[in-house]
Design brief:
globular
Length: about 160
């Protein structure tokens, strides 16, 4: 699997360096950092920085100082990150997401869930994602029964066009 990911990365200019990974850290604080990044609109930047640091540079996230460096590289404030990492902010939100993943049967990453209907697992070519998007069931319309949007669309609702 590492060889497949390495080849896929190389094809888009990413050099995976599994040889530099000397530790498999507990990633809970990394996930909290992603959560915090989301509160500042920096979640994508934080995820990219974490992936680059771990997979390309072999950074050990068991060291909170390394998480702070990664957060700073994604545009976050070092003092805020230091305060955050000694606290518990985001812990309950991360645990809730972990429980949701278990309920959905997710046991590996990456896994992409599209419209709560189709999932794509692992490093896949763009064609796989396009096919997944083509197979998503159409959302139910309430045009024929506007009085019961919950029954037609489920508890998450849908666009109502009457």
């Amino acid at each position: 699997m590492d060889a497949q990911v390495t080849a896929a990365g190389k094809s888009v200019g990413i050099e995976f360096r599994y040889d530099l990974q000397t530790h498999t850290p507990n990633t809970f604080d990394s996930h909290r950092l992603v959560w915090l990044g989301g509160t500042f609109g920096l979640q994508d930047s934080v995820v990219e920085a974490l992936f680059r640091a771990y997979f390309c540079e072999g950074v050990n996230f068991a060291d909170p100082k390394k998480l702070i460096e990664v957060g700073v590289s994604a545009g976050m404030d070092a003092a805020e990150l230091k305060r955050f990492l000694v606290g518990k902010d985001g812990a309950s939100a991360v645990r809730e997401e972990e429980q949701r993943a278990r309920r959905l049967g997710i046991s590996s990453v990456p896994l992409y869930v599209i419209n709560e209907a189709v999932s794509v697992s692992g490093a896949q070519p763009a064609e796989t994602f396009l096919e997944a998007l083509r197979t998503i069931p159409a959302r139910k319309s309430v045009a024929d029964n506007p009085g019961d949007a919950t029954q037609a669309c489920g508890t998450d609702g849908c666009d109502v066009k009457i």
